[in-house]
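Rotation project, supervised by the postdoc (A.L.). Task for the rotation student: set up a whole-complex structure prediction and record inputs and outputs verbatim in this book. Inputs entered:
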Amino acid sequence: MDDEWAIEVKDLVRVFESRKGFFFSEKTRTEALKGVQLVVRRGAIFGLLGPNGAGKTTLTKILSTLLLPTSGSVRVLGHDVVEEATWLRSRIGLVLGGERGLYNRINARENLRYFADLYGIPTDERNRRITEVLERVDLTWAADRRVEEYSRGMKQKLHIARGILHRPEILFLDEPTIGLDPKSARETRKLVRSLVADGVTIFLTTHYMFEAEELCPQVAVLSKGRIVANDTMAGLRSRVGGDRTIEVEAYGLEDREVAPLRNLPGVSKVAGEEFGPLLRLTIRIRTDETTPEQVRDLLPGHPELMVRERRTSLEDVYLDLVEEEAR
Amino acid sequence: MTLASASVSRTRATGASVRLAILLFVADPQWLVPSTIAPIVFGLVSFELFRGEGPYFLTYAILGAGMMSMWGQTLYGSGWATGQDRFLGTLEPTIQAPAPYLYVVLGRIIWNVVAGLFGGLIVYLVVVIAAGGPPQLPNPLLFVVLFVFVMVTLASVGVVFAAAFVYSRYAGFIQNVGEFAFYIGTGCMFPVVLLPFWTNPIALLFPPTWALDALRYVSIPGYTGFAWGWGWDLFGAVAVTAVYAAVAGTVFDRVERHVLESGQLSDY
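Outputs recorded:
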């Protein structure tokens, strides 16, 4: 058992088999995870990105003991998710979020009390713990209202409250800010950071690149059931060709005009995307040598030319990796 | 691969589940129909059906209608609770909690048995009011003991039904199709000896058949059931209930493994 790792996944494969039709049923087989390898350090926030259907939720459910792996080894907090599921369940929290997953006809306090009992929280601590998590997610004011009266954001907060009620060592958050207004989303991110400060390991799946960039020192990209990248932000930027990106937008740019851009110093990649007559070029640069002015100088005869520089974002990295995988 | 044993107290899991079931029951007015209105209808129908059929017709009427309402509440409620967990998406977080799920289900069933008892009480009151007085009971103490046992047998069937609902989202189909067949097959309204002989072996697979037959033996002098007296019925009921309890214990582990393999916990 290695104490350094909160999560260790080796050669994880998950296959879903289903049948369609009643009398002449047809068996379908979907390989959702295809040999996933992954380690997550204890006490860190780990971000998992991927397009819809990439296998993020499947992986999260396996790690949180809600789904059995077809093959491979999965250890969380040094314990096997299949053999030691019950031991693990009291030490991990899971927030799947969304509109479902709560008893709508009773209030938030009663929802939490039920799960406090199922998690074996000592009875003399139970009420204090419930009050504490309700305060932490800013739901105290609505604690005695029926959940069916809650907005989507309030339900999401209640999901999080339930996820941290038993003080888990590791918390799985599956798209925790989806559907939240900007203020609630910001509060959720703040909460996540405070949990990490308390020593909780966070495994976060998200579609929001800025969120992953803001929260996660380490990010993995899952595409078509495979981890196609797993690195720090700096490592990922370097992998897709540099920390700097220059964007160029112009009408009627021709290939012969674009070609010299590839020879500029430090340029690792030039990619184009057409929007009707408008061409948007993304130039990835490894060094400081090439500037937007040099790019502008190489494209004379385009008075409407728009050139701007920005830092390579996680979104750039993600799109590059997913496109690469799709090819 | 085996799933690890539970670390949360079984009593606590059961207690939490009973509490939740009561809260949901109180919060959901639709339960007034099976728990109050249906027993009134059953009681009146049964009273009219058995009126004048010998000196113990009142007992027949109460037992028949009372069992129907208790059976409906216990069995239908137990399956429905798990189906509702699927619908609400609460089955996943409940199974993900360390409490043993069998005892969570047991809590729901205990409440359903109590709610069923309430239905039985309503039937009793309806029939007594309609008849203008209570029925004669030759051995009230034994009747009460056996009656409690009837509830246990109902609960044992409820656990197995609930397992079916965890296993598959299509379990409601079996329940909807089978509900009235079970009513008749287990002798709720009519003793199973009145049914064609080929149905008797099937009826004997259900613990309430035995328990109800025992109850009729002790409350209706001269009653001829399928056993040689209430003692034999009780023995049969204990044996079949023990089988159900053993099946439930092992079935739940397998059912949990199946749903974790199939990944259909959140499907409805």
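Student's summary: Chain B touches chain A at residues 1-9, 12-13, 15-16, 19-20, 23-24, 27-28, 88-90, 92-99, 104, 257, 260-261, 263, 265-266 (CB under 8 Å).
Supervisor addendum: The mean pLDDT of chain B is 81.
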